[in-house]
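Translate sequence into structure tokens.
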Amino acid sequence: MKILLLDKFDNFLQWWADGLAQIVPTSWGSRHKQLKQHLLLHYNEKELLIEHFAQVADEATTRHLISTYDESDKKNVQEWLAKSPELSTLPTILRLQSDRILVKRLRYPAAARADLRNVISYDINRQTPFSREDVYFDFEEIATKDASAHIEVDLFLIPKKELEPLESTIKALELRLTAIDISGPTSVSGVNLLPIQSEKKCNQPPYRIWFGLFILWLSLITLIPVKLILDSNATIIHLEQQQKNGITTIQPLKELRDRYAKHVNKSKFLNHLRSKHIGALDLLGEITNLLSDNTWIRRFEFKNGTLRLQGESTNASEILGILDGSPRFSSPTFSSPVTRNNSNGSDRFKIAVSVTPNSDL
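Result follows.
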């Protein structure tokens, strides 16, 4: 349904742009036509068909058929591209037949939707006989009745090894693929098997430093008021004893009692603040109770209402659903792709999740 709506919206934009091209200056209209041009590649195991579409139309304006094993064919196409160097800058789409694509339907908790590509990228190793580094893949979400609880997706992939002869030919022609899509009886629009390059580098301070600083800060704000109260109380006791002996007057004692009352109020205020906010040790205990024994937490960071976890598990994809089901946590996502620990078969993961304050529970 989502892809169908997008197609209808694209058709509306195309109609609107064609109408607008009739009233804009000629130079703008020629630029609009340039944007419509593209190269379409059709590939089988032995031949590559290159079609040049000058405008959006049913028929290509130019076609060249290349044998992937015939160097003379490549030279003819290279000469054609050299005569029209602007063709090398056009969007280049590789269209594969659907019978060459492996399709598999997968099911995940709804909490995985925010980081679905990373979850599926890791799951390729388990759901298919291929490693994710050895395939081109994309997915399409399927509309279901219980979308609020679970999501279903169709996974499309093709091993990179099958396209190796084509890659050498494209490299020799100095073309750069813009997309890899699918055609055939079960054609799917909106799917692009080319990988998305979006690596995020994280440079987080060590967990032990943050945790140590937090404990030190917590100790200071707890011990300083207590020490002030104890010192004031000891002074009051001492002065009361002196008063009984007639050594001092009552005025200093009254001032110290007022100071003592102020320190007590400050201490109560700090205790009230601590009761409104959950502590890191309480969070660590709750995480321990939620996660199963096959999950290990190696780094634990709590800052500005966000808890960051790093560790290993036999099934990292289920952690998002567990955290999302707790009233203490919300919006759990993978902060980086899940990786495999080949030494013990577990999943390495990094998760960020928002923590709900005590006052909002």
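Note: The chain has a mean pLDDT of 78.
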